[in-house]
User: Fold these one by one.
Assistant:
Number 1:
Amino acid sequence: MSSTRQQTSTNSGNTSLTATKKETVRVPLQLDVNSQKYFVTGYPEMVRVALSGPAALVTTTSNTQNFKVYASLKGLGTGTHTVKLHVEGLNKDIKETLHPKTIKVNVQPRKSQTFKIESEFNKGNIAEGYVAGRPTTGISSVKATGAANEIARIDKVVAQIIVPQNAKTTINSQAIIEALDKNGKTVNVILTPSTTNASLPITADGKSKKRLSLSLRPKMAV
């Protein structure tokens, strides 16, 4: 949203028109932190900045967003902290108002760990008379990176294979990889990679066909 107005000023008998403008933009929030040592959660990815000043400057700044909003976490230990946001790179003739002005973050030691991948799919979606074979994936393990306390929560890492209702043919697709805790809830970590090629063979159940064949065979008279 933006608004523009004109102010009339008199200087040495000359009248001039100076256009001013207000506009709110959304910009990514940057963190000043040792990302090799710490992993930070809880902060918003984007923040709103209300700009006001000369119309041309505000328009250019809004279009280029050649400034940054950051939170300095240097000197903070692990735990939850409330920190102030800062703006850098704005023209001195532009005034800014941040929304929010402070944020709450959780700083934890950074940790990476490798996990084997398990495959999961909804067996109830396999058509009657058909069976699923052993699923395979393009990779066998992934690297999970995040806060040490979140990594400790991981019970398993699974590749979720989407099976359509009443499936009768082999499925070859991209499967989303998820880290789950012991209750089956998603753990907030970064997985590398986050997807994999997956294959789930689905074939007709030979036993079912044999039973059907026997039931249709004519009975011999005694």
Number 2:
Amino acid sequence: MLLVDDHPVFLRGLRAVLEEERWVASILEADTAADAVRIAREHPVTVVAMDVALPDADGIEATRRILEIRPTVNVLMLTMLDDDEIVFRALHAGAHGYARKDIQPDKLVQALSTVADGGVVLGPSIGAGVLAGVRRTTAVLPPPFDRLNDRDRLLLYRMALGDNNAQIAHRLGLAEKTIRNQISELFDKLGARDRVRAVLLVHDSGVLPYLTPDTAR
């Protein structure tokens, strides 16, 4: 786990909370984008908590550079503001989502755990913003979403809300392996190589309100 933030009090507090988590093997720290990139190059980092605002560079750009070095790293952006533009820029850079720095520590740890498992984390304000003022209809979905059946739409809807495979499996009463296989087939239908790209496609296309079959409620 790599924590990237230039506020020592926040960094110290987050580290203290994460040190109590069994799934966190080790913790590295950086207070600049340059240090974060260097550490990612020198150490087998798998998860990064990345502040958006760093003293020497944009945390989103640092994320992009880290993913060029280690494409399988899962990054959670940390921000003090709910800003759709920042969130979508971060996702396009390859981040798995974002969390506000002022949320409860247990919520932040949960967000990091979700990202570590390959899930996508989007704050509630982003979901509300996408849905606000949009009336759910039976309109025909544009390609490639028109290729999806009800189960595909449900899986994609839950992924867009940030559920990981285990959470979806529990919700639907299916084995996690079954969900994993179904999501793999869903990626093929969408032409998306991974979860982040599939979620980006949903939000960029504005189809989230139309994905929800009755079973997703």
Number 3:
Amino acid sequence: MACIAHYAKNIKWKKAAGLGLLGILLIASNSLFVNTLFSAYEMPQTEVKGHYPVAIILGGGMIRANQEDPTRMNVGESADRFLQPALLYKQGKVDRILITGGNTSIGNLKIDQSNETAQVKRLLVALGIPHEKIITETQARNTHENAKFSKRMLDSLHLQGPILLVTSAFHMRRASACFTKEGLHCIPFVVDSKKKDTELGVLECIIPSEKELYKLSYLLREIFGFLIYRIVGYA
């Protein structure tokens, strides 16, 4: 009898655990839940007021590597990071554009063959921005180094005054904290917002979506990264 009771208890516990995991999965893949989290964490979009000597673009996800045709440039899901600064330059709101970001490969664990900084510069030139107005920084491998090396480059070029900092809305909290830590006066200009600003439909609020799981993983990783940066003193 004791064995049967123990077996039944295990079955009950496993069933409860399975239902719990299913519930977590359903919540984590729910558009309304994920959109609410992004709305709470992302920094809001603002209009650019005034004029800035430089707009700094933080690399990451703007370009996808193309092995089949290296001459073709495939933009990534964060292409808004360079498209919006290009428009600002055309509108006369920034004098220069600095692209910061190097090779983020980590041995065989993470392979980065996008050559993103150089590719984005090519695209900006193709969009009509003079190449001498585009500064590239190719050493940085993370947000901390983006800020550190950008500060060093701006100092060497004697560029003073507030800068326009451009990155994805969910990444801006950590990025602006890092740049401020390096002593730069930066004005956040968020792009590439992941939240949905329009009203969600009934089906979106009910039917689970694997896309929402993907977005949630991005947000959780960003929040965890921000906490680590706070602890080690980068932000």
Number 4:
Amino acid sequence: MTAPRRPGLLTDLGAAALALVLVGIAGMLGKWQYDAWQASREAEARDLTGIAPVPLGDVMGNDDPFPAPDLGRPVEVAGEWLDGGFWVSDRDRGDEPGYWAVAPLQTGDAAVLVVRGWAPQPDADLLAVSGAADVTGWLQAPEGTLVTDDDPTDDVFPEIRVADAVQRVDVDLYSAYLISQEPAPGLQEAELEALPTPSRTTGIRNLLYAVEWWVFGAFAAFIWWRWRRDATAPQLPSPAAG
């Protein structure tokens, strides 16, 4: 066995410099993609509840699906209250169980469901409402966990489902409801339940790109290490030399 080979100084430095450059570039590009993934998730989960309200028509039409990025956005709507209100059960306010009072508000050719407030028990007098109204409320997506209604004949629903509520009015309903910022007389403020949360797939492409770049950087470092190890390994004597 002879002394280990050593690459020339320039070759050694050049290989190390190239490896460092490749690892550095891969690390920075991976960090850039990772930051883009984080930014996508933060943008989807942003809290809109404190911004200035906009007209409901600027956010969605009555035939539009619910705009998920606008969950919790304050919106303004003017219209006429319609018959067909109902209570929604199992709506806690703090630690106190209670009910939401919901009524359809017609605006144009359709109506939007409005949570007018909270009460500890259903009360027909609190549910009754009529006339014109200007409402500012937080935009919420209709529910639909298919909870069974124990008594479909009463005015108490287990959830706010458009498919159930539309049977109580003669107009189309928006695929959304509002939680009024100002409770109606006799009612207390209903707590805002749903705020945006990012889905598991939000920005997933950026995250995968980040992992790919980091793997590439690790591979470049491995190639340099393997080359350096082989370049400095002891030389075995050839059979002819023996």
